[in-house]
Amino acid sequence: MSVEVEETITRVHHEEWARVVAALTRRFGDLDIAEEAAAEAFATAVVRWPADGVPPNPGGWLTTTANRKAIDRIRRESKRDDKHREAQMLSDDPPGPLGVIDDERLRLIFTCCHPALAMEARVALTLRMVGGLTVAEIARAFLVQESTVGQRITRAKAKIKAARIPYRVPSAEDLPGRVSGVLAVLFLVFNEGYLASGPDTDPVRHELTAEAIRLARLIRGLLPGDGEVAGLLALMLLTEARRTARVSASGELVSLDQQDRGAWDKAMVAEGHRLVRERLAAGVAPGRYQILAAINAVHTDARDVRDTDWSQVVALYDQLVRIDPSPIVALNRAIAVAELDGPEVALAAVDRLDDQLAGYHAYQATRADLLRRLGRSQQAREAYDKAIALAGNTAETAYLTRRRDQLA
C-alpha cells in the first residue's frame, strides 16, 4: 500500500467513522450491527482502495459498503419469525428525521449518553461510536484494562437494545435534564483530541476536537440560554485556538509559556472571550465549564506570559474547587499558585495529592518542573522518569525527555 493511500484511509477513517456509524444506526436501529458493518467497510477499503484507487466520494462509498455488509449480516442471522423486522430493515427508504435537529451524529451521541447508562459506560460508548477510538485508546485514556472498556461498551449496547432506547435527540422538555451528561462526554472527547493518550496516534487529534466543537455548537442551538453549554463551547474554542502552536516542527509539545501567541487563532479567541463575557453579564453563578472557560480567557488575554493575571487565575480555581473538589483541579490550582506564591508553596500542595495522583503523568510532570525550579535536580530527574513512563503521547514524551536531559 502506498503511503498516500494509507494516509488517505487514516484521514477518511477520522472524518467519516461517526457519519457511517450514525447512518447505519439510524437505518438498522442496532449499534452492534452499525459498528461491525462500519468496521468491515473500512477493512474492505484497506484491501480495495490500493488496487482500485480511492473513490471520488469516500464517505458515500463506505456508507454504501457498510449498508451491504449490515444487510448480509441480517440475512445470515434472521430467523423465520423475524421476517417482518428484516423487511423493515432492508427497506431502501430510511425513516425520516427525528428530534429537534436533523443531525445523525447528534442523535447518536444522545443515544450513547442516555441517563439509563452509567457515566463510565456513556463515555466509553461515545468515544467508540462517535469518536472512533479503539478500545485500546479508550483504555489508555482512563487508565483501565482493555477488557474493562470492552465489557462497558458491550453492556451499554446491550442495555440500549434491551431498554429500546430511541435513536433521537430528546424532546425540548427533556433536553435540560439530559444535557449535563452529554457535555461531560463531549468534554472527554475533546480532551482526547487535545492531547491524545496513546503513542500510536497523532499527539493532537484535530478531527476529535473539531467534532466536539461542532456538536457543542448544535447543542447551544438547542439550549441557547444554558450557561454550561456556552461555557463548554467557550472552553473548547479558547483551547483549540492554541492548537497549531502546541506542537513544534520536530513533534515536541510546546508549553503554554513558550507558545507563539501570534499563531493562536484570533477568531476563536475572540468568540471564546465573547461567550465568557456574556455569561459574566448574565449574573448567574457559574458552573464548572464556565469557570474553566474564564481561566482560559485570562490566559489567552495576556499578550505575553508575563502579563498573565495569576491572582485572577488562582481566584477562579478557588471557585472551581468549591464545586469540583477533585485532585485534578487541585493539581492545576497548584500550578497557578507556583506563579503567584513560588514553587515551594506549590510543591507542598502537589505532594499532598500523591496518594490520589501518583500514577498520573501530569502529576509527575508538575512535580518534576517544581523540583527543577527549586534546584533539586536529582529528585526532578526521578519525577521526569516517572512522567515519561506514564505519558504515552509522543509529543509530551519528547518534551519531558528534553527537560529531563537539560538537568545537570
Task: Provide structural commentary.
- The protein folds into four domains: 1-91; 105-122 and 130-166 and 174-223, no CATH class; 225-308, no CATH class; 337-408, Serine Threonine Protein Phosphatase 5, Tetratricopeptide repeat (Alpha Horseshoe).
- The protein is mostly helical and 408 residues long.
- The N and C termini lie far apart (46 Å).
- Residues 91-100 have low confidence and may be disordered.
- The protein contains 20 helices and no strands.
Keywords:
408 residues, mainly alpha, 4 domains, 20 helices, 69% helix, globular
Could you give a short description of this structure?
The chain is mainly α and 408 residues long.
